[in-house]
What does this fold into?
Amino acid sequence: MMDDNDDSPYRGRSNPTVILSSTSKLEKSRMRYFHLSFPIKWEKMIFQRDGKWMAHCWLLSFMHVSITIPPFFHLMLENIGDGQIGVYLKSPREPYRMVVSQEGTQDREIEPYTFEGTRYAVTHIGELQTVRIEERPGEGLQDGS
It folds into this structure.
């Protein structure tokens, strides 16, 4: 997909890698990559380290990846240009903590919001940052809330 041709839309673009860490199991079958919103086949790297599931997501220009994390999380990571990644998290019921971290800086927790009964968290990160998503046990929302 990369091309050094002067007429290429990819020339001179940044292609960041996102490292996702989750306390819930990640599965390759639940990761879907898109280029210009069309589904494509792309390399999926998932492994477990220190009791957490890790995924490396390589995003070329005009790409995003959609990840479902059972039981209730849906995450989308999008290359929004200039080395920035859009991170969009949706969870209809489960409370969670989404944290952006970078070596040498203080972690930044992302405040969720609710829209029509579904919880969302939205942020953008640079390519040197990591997003960590953790469930908050014992803080479950009641049905019908």
Summary: The chain has one domain: 17-135.
